[in-house]
Structure formats: structure tokens, C-alpha cells
Amino acid sequence: MKINSIKLAGVIAWIAAIGCGAGNIEEEASGDQAPADDEIGTLEQGLMVCSNPDGANSVMAALAVAVGQQLGRWNATKDFDGSGSMLTLRSGYDSSGPIGKSRCADGTCARIQALLDMQSDAARGKVYIQGSGSTKVLLDPPSLRSRLVAKWNEQKVCDQAARNGTNTDCTTEQNVLSYLSAAPGGCDMNFTFAVKGTNGLALRYPNQLKNELKFADSQNPYINFTDLGNGNVSIDPTYGLNDDGSSSTGSCTAACTKISTTSIAGQCCSCAGVTKSFVKSAWSSTTFLCN
């Protein structure tokens, strides 16, 4: 478990998914009454508890980042199918244009697919998530796939009842995301996106954008969705599960598992304080394990 101090004064804190411990972020305000949604941005949050007991929080938050990077939007009901035993990417077109894999230049959405492949039993007992210090967490694929399916169905229900103007509802307003940067964050790595509506203008209901991340679990502390103002938002997954950003121990990459669209097999890595080398996983050409 990591406990980090982060200051969110002047921004609207939005907690939605990606793990760093077994629990949710707890906010304390003076008095007995919890702060309203529109007051959270005026508070200075102290202790942030990141829980990731079975690794699913990290992977789900990383999926939210990869979707933003590769699909350029958060619209999981259109782009994914959770009607089966695991979450999968759709493909093809609807009235608004390409969906799922058809939105990716490579036709496969390699980063997204690598994360979805972690639902497979082939990954069982293989994928470790880097924690703080010398800790690591073993991913449980059955837990991951059951949560992804359950949360996609939750997203679907929310989208079907979408209405504008209430922070607890999904919005009818569609979003367009542009990836900007990655930097150290509250749980691990903050990934920042610029967001607009499909008309190219600022969102009219930016506070409701957080509800489009229900597919990654709105109670997942690794999401840590934050409205940074000026049309920028960020979320906070574990380093290594998304291609960008940097984290190292000396000359070695500090990650137990790393997704990369170029081969890093043989490169030095540090998993939970132990120096090893990356090897390509047996089930994915873009997933590398520090073994």
C-alpha cells in the first residue's frame, strides 16, 4: 500500500478507478457533513490511499488511459462488448463513425488489446504489478475479467439513462480526448488529456465526464480523475502498463510488467527491488515481464 499526499486545491477531484491498495479514497471535511461535489475542488486533500489487492485496479485504470490514447474518447458502451465472459473490443462503424478497433491506425489497438489479454487464464500467475518499495501484487485474471464485464454493464445502464446537468448521471455530450503528457502522480503516473466536445468546443458538462469511466470502476483509487481546468483532465495508473512516462532504478526500468509496442526483451528491469531482464510474455507480443 502506498499513502501519498496530494494537493488538489483549485481543481475538481474526481475519483474513478486504478488501484494502489485495498480501499477507496476517503475525504475528510470540517464538520459532520461531507462536501458536495462542487466543493471538492476547493479542498486540499491529504492522505490518498491506493489499493490494489488483486492487481485489477491498476489494469483497469491503465485501460482507461489506453482507451483515451488510442480511441481518442471515453465511450465504452460503443467501443467495447461486455455481453460475454470477458470484455472485448468491437469494430466497424455506427452513425457517428468508426468504433472500437476501427478507430485505431494499426487496426488492433495494440495497447488496449494487451490489457484486455490480461483477462486470459494464460496470464494467471504471471503478471505482477509494481508496488511501493519492495512490494509487488500478482494480478488475478478471473477477478479482472469479472469486474470489467460488470463495470461495462454498469456503464451501459448509465449511458442508457444519460441526462445533462447532474453530476451523478452520464451525459449525452460526447467527448474527444487528446493525450498530452505523463508525470509522477498521487498513486503512480498521472496521464493528462485535453478534452473537448465533438463540435470542437469545451464540454458544457465537464463534471459529468467522470461518469464515462464507470467501465474502469468509479470507486477505483487509481483512476483519481481530476479536472485540471482549461479543458484538461488526468487519471493516475501504475507505471509500465501504459507506453508513455518514465520510471527507473538506476539504468533499469522500475516495472514488473511493461506494455510496449516495440520490443524491450532483454532490457534491464527492476521488479520489487530485484534486478532482472524483460522477456516477452507467451500470450501477448506487446506485454513484457520482468523475469
Task: Summarize the helices and strands and which ones pair or pack.
Blueprint: E1 2-5, E2 12-13, E3 47-50, H1 56-71, H2 76-79, E4 80-81, E5 88-89, E6 93-94, E7 97-98, H3 110-116, E8 128-130, E9 136-138, H4 141-160, E10 175-184, E11 189-197, E12 226-229, E13 232-235, E14 248-249, E15 252-253, E16 257-259, E17 268-271, E18 274-280, E19 287-290
Antiparallel strand pairs: 1-3, 2-12, 4-5, 6-7, 8-9, 10-11, 11-13, 12-13, 14-15, 16-19, 17-18, 18-19
Helix pairs in contact: 1-3, 1-4
Describe the structure in brief:
Helices cover 16% and strands 25% of the residues.
Radius of gyration (Å): 18 Å
Number of helices: 4
Low-confidence stretches: 1-47
Would you report the number of β strands?
19
H-E order: EEEHHEEEEHEEHEEEEEEEEEE
Give the averaged pLDDT, no decimals: 83
The level of helicity is 10-25%
Shape: globular
Which percent range describes the beta-strand content? 25-35%
- Spatial separation of the terminal alpha carbons: 23 Å
Assembly status: single chain
Strand order of the largest sheet: 2-12-13-11-10
Kindly give the count of domains: 1
Structural class: alpha+beta
Characterize the main sheet: 5 strands, antiparallel
Describe the structure.
- The protein is α+β, with helices and mostly antiparallel strands and 291 residues long.
- It has one domain (2-290).
- The chain is built from four helices and 19 strands.
- The strands form seven sheets. The chain has a five-stranded antiparallel sheet, with helices on one face. It has a four-stranded antiparallel sheet with strand order 16-19-18-17, covered by helices on one side. A two-stranded antiparallel sheet has the order 1-3.
- Helix 1 packs antiparallel against helix 3 and helix 1 crosses helix 4 (141-160).
- The protein is globular and about 50 Å long.
- It starts with a strand and ends with a strand.
